[in-house]
Amino acid sequence: MQIPSRKEMIQNIKDQGGKVAAVLPYHYPRALLRAHGIFPVEVWGPAYVDDMAGTQHFPEYTCKIVQKGTQFLMGPLAEAVDCIFIPHTCDSLQGMASVMKDFMPESKPVFTLYHPRGRRQSDKTFLTAELHHLSAELTAVSGVRPTDQDLREAMDTEEKASKVFSQIALNRRDYDVTDREFYTVLRSREYLPAEDFTALAQGMPRGKRDLIGVPLMISGIVADPLDLFDHINGFGAHVVGDDMGCCSRRIYDAPGNGDAFDALAVQLMSMPPDPTVSSPYKKRFDHIVDQMKENQAKGLLVYDMKFCEPELFYLPMLEEAVLAAGMGFLYVEIELTPIIPQTVLNRINAFIEVIS
Amino acid sequence: MNLSNAVKYAGAATLGKPVLYYQKQQNLKRIEALAQKNDPHLSPPLKANARMSQLLSEQYLKGRFTEGVRKVAWHSSGAPIEILQTLDFFLYTPDNHAAMCGARKLGAQYCEIAENKGYSRDICSYARTDIGSFLSGKTPVGRLPKPDLIVVSNNICQTILHWYQAMGVYYNAPVFVIDTPFLYGDAKAHDVAFVKQQMEELIPVAEKISGKRFSRKKFHEICRRGKLCSDLWCEVLYRAKHKPAPLSGFDAFILMGPVVALRGEVSSIDFYHEVLKEIDERIDKGIGVVKNEKYRILWDNLPIWYRISWFSKQLAALGISVAISNYTYQWAEPAQYFDLVRPMEGAAKTYLHSILNRSAGYKLHHMEQMVEDFSLDGVLFHSDRSCKPYSLGQMDQSRAMLDNLGLPCVTIESDHNDERVFSEGQISTRLQAFAEMLG
Amino acid sequence: MRYMGIDIGSSTCCAVILDKNRQIESSAMVPTGARNEKAIASVRRQTLDGAGLKPTDIKGLVSTGYGRKRVEDRTLDKTEIVCHAKGIQTYFPGTTVLIDIGGQDSKAIYIHPKSGKVVNFAMNDKCAAGTGRFLETMARVLEMDITDMDGLDVGEKGTQQISNMCTVFAESEVVSLIAQGVETGEIISGINRAIATRTFSLAKRVASDMDSDKIAISGGVARIKGVVAALERCLGKEILVPPDPGIIGALGAAVFALEETI
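Output (structure tokens, whole complex):
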């Protein structure tokens, strides 16, 4: 499977006269951007860039997604993108958006979206209004004022891709690919236009997968670098499911009928229990443990960004819940280095040995 | 109704008073003794500190006996307490308790208890202190009141949501969130509408738990008193515009207790009248906190609770007076949004516009205004490891202060509650270097 | 009439004696060790002996460094920030950016081009990465002397990156590289680049655009040519290196002693 890189994708889009938004993690209305003729390309670091620009603006206890993301946006992507979209996911991304807007005039225009933390009628009313407001702001970049119909069409296109995405994520045993290849495809949803992703994912080779060793579930914000999966396989385990911000936390319900903005808001709020919207603890633990049981996982590997408070608060009780359900639990923290430190790999290796 | 507790609660409210009065007198004697010592750099503490301790102690004392007597609402320091006060909830602020533990140098101890349970050192030290207190049952105030309802607003940070959700699990208490969308710019109509709607939604939930009916009339009166309290607090802080500053940012860190935890209580209003009286006496006599005030600065970010006295002395010895902090100003500035004609909407705006819910650029603009209003010579940025909403943006704000206003700034890296994140030698050097730049 | 400056750092203790014309009469440096009183006494004695002077010949004494308050008979004490800024200007007047990389900390200082006063500073004083300690750790792993390492550095040609910030992790990474058979010269260029990147990041905090700045370096690590070269490549310009970069703090303190006593 030949997948273009993020840089190549951006170049393709620009060559065809399209507009590109660099999007920071991680819940956001793809369909709304596409309805504006803006292609979203997600920025998760990446691990291979340094954090030079980030260290000029953010203290060292800020997560590397923000620090490296800043470097990436001010360096390699600076000219290529038309705007930057930073959803309000956490205090660190809040700071990043605020600093870029107020103190980095050299950056491209920055847009934000506030995700309401609850699931009440008031939250829905707010999010609908917030999406309308965002759309009006995006018009300044896109020059487009999408109608309800335009938005519906974009939502339909995205829904096709999302259906394929969740179909694959939930039935991974039916695809004869390695974990690394699997996540390479899943993570291409972060930057391939929906139509391209659908075609790519549908082309993934079907067949019974060779399941290596111990079944493992992984949780965290982002699985990067993808070498992680080679290491997991090498240590004698395979991935049966995930609770990752970059992947399965973004499996939403299909959009309903009626007003498109309304339907988009409801869809966005249908995410699985998620620490970045402070989902109630018990709901979250039940969701993860149920997934693990369904997929017969023997252990949960929490592979997480250092300094990530939304993740860290849940850990002690999550560990209790997983252990109480008779499964193993390991937490490792990463700083998005291009090479996973030996200390982290040793822990994962030992964990897999213990649970096998 | 728990009769035994009812008796004890009544006892705390009445018989407890002489005990607390005695404690207050003892505190006043200590302040007197300090005055006698005649420190070369620092004037003695304000006598109002003694009354402040008394007020908060009374609340904590009653708090030991609330179970079965009064319904208890835990609330975050930025939550809309007026609704809860209208329904006669007994109020408790975990943030306040955590800060007090920090001030009593119990922060690291309690944090370690939480860490041993698996809570990371990278989460807010207020949360770790509070969780540690819960897990061990330890608290310097005897016993904490258990919550019947937890109300949390994220107008100060997102961390507080996770922290209070955890408390909801530990205490098996319902958690109500007042979600305040972050203001990257000006508030939008739908931001205000959202906060107002949530506050309205809180009413039936709180009514059910309190067993009382919500009275709009009483709510109006409580908002009036809350605004009055905030206005008085604002006046207190503004007195520091005088040269030499008759009260310091460090005084304000302590004296803000009532406006945070007991805002709108008649006793808090009386208290701030007392504070103003004492400060005005100082102004008449030309007494400043720092005896040889050479430089006046702003303290940005949370205080370092376990070293307030140390900082006060170190800076005073260098002739530096912390005239104002934007942390204490948090409970003064939003008072302008209180609207006694439309109190619910006014309250919604007030809580939405908390300084920590505003952009980094707004905070800078606000600081620049303070530089002018308080005649400041420099800014001390506390890069608080535990507080990302406050700390992110400081590097740019510091650069802007220097570039735009030519103001020397210093950044010190520490933590507001965890004594282990404090390096005396290094910070002392930075403070001295700051003085060298100011000179 | 002589003037002495003493810099009591966490790794080394250094003293400098100036005459009234600001000429260095003598200097000495010893490891600070666990008890700095001995180190302080030792450098004082060595510098006095080196110049053939008695203690009473010293008219003004300024101390700096973390142990500055331990010098009982000092005229005054100043922080190492202003002392380094003062010291570097005796060699390179008009320096606006000074980068100091010591044994355990590093700092970047911005000096006003006209007044010579410190305007801003940034410090890394709680992490070994980018300090002499980092180099020492790497030297130990490579089983070499730091000076020998300098000789093998392939410099600009090197492509090896050390990706980890933390000294402990970086050490582990270097052990892996050695096991993989990566050439020593490449590893050393990676180490130097890591220090330079970290230092560059610190420098940018006090001077975001250094095109028109006059940049100098001080501290023990300034003696390592490979690090200086790597830093020059980051900055895209020349860095001025004083003849004895380890004494700049003490030199600055001595200049203060002269200026404040006259």
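The first helix of chain A runs from residue 6 to 15.
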